[in-house]
Amino acid sequence: MSDHESAALTAWRQPTSVRRFTTEQWTDALWGAGQHRCLARLSYRIEDAGCADACPEPAWDLLTSARYYPSFLQVRVAREIRHLHRILRARGIDFLLLKGGAYLSAGFPFARGRGMNDLDLMVRKSALGEAEAALRAGGLVTATLNDYDQHYYRTWMHEIPPLHHPERGVEVDVHHRILPLTSRLNPAPEIMWADAIALPATPGVAILSPPDMLLHTATHLFYDGAILDGFRDLLDIDSLIDIHAIAPDYWSHLLERAASLELGRPLYYALYFARRILATPIPTATLEEARARFAPGALVRPVMERLVTRVLPPRPRTARAAPVSAWLLYLRSHWLRMPPGLLARHLGRKGLRRFAPDSPAADWPPP
């Protein structure tokens, strides 16, 4: 373990290493995993490696007690899926489960311990209006939004404003594509629908194909602003590769799929940083091909490598945070989501809302 590496990261990469952890390293590991809300996942990682007996009793008690809350959240999400299926099935509306809801419904082992505060699903754009009306008729509501935010969601975004049922508490994000309409990347949702995998237990409900599932997670992490709190998404990428890469031609299919969906750049970042940070077993030839086809230029690449490695992985408890790097990545996420003119107006309006909330210009007119 490097002096500059978090013990939480070491424990994930090499769970057998916990047999040699000192008290100080355990303190650092638990702190780092707690900061990234992955204590429960780390507990299963250690247990699956046969190393639970190596954990000091207080540490193991903390790790295993962290499992209860994610389990509760998953019960809520599973219940919400059943409600949404009943509502949308009655209207003949099919939908795709995304991210955590998909992992849970597919029974992926790495869903154990994974927190799920919301439920992401995707419907076809042609069914979006009817789906929203059906969900509202079924008791789901949206938080109060001003005119500007309503316009922003419905004109430029890849989803409608978040919904929730007042008594069930799960936020439901209904997508019609995986990136905003204003994004520099334009993955066609109909291509993803064509290869979606139906869930036999719930007719009309499907999940993305294995390559698309990884591409969506990579895109969410590196292009949709999630990178500031994205270590759990990187764990998802590592785990998706672990269960899917055994398929014949997985890597070649993944690269070609990224090209057809225009998602080569986020795939390159996902492969590069999963291997660098988590030691994910990605073939060198695959990474080299991804670099040749999809990597940024020689000026951008080292900048991204420095920023991401300072922000994404857990840091040692005694290490300083990297707020400047985080701020630059935050700006990058907005730059990728909007053209310059729209971005300037959007950030200007957000600034007015923060510092001059009573100004009419803070909410209207729309961009």
UniProtKB/TrEMBL annotation:
A Pfam match: NTP_transf_5
Name under which the protein is recorded: Nucleotidyltransferase
What organism, scientifically named, is this protein from? Candidatus Thiodictyon syntrophicum
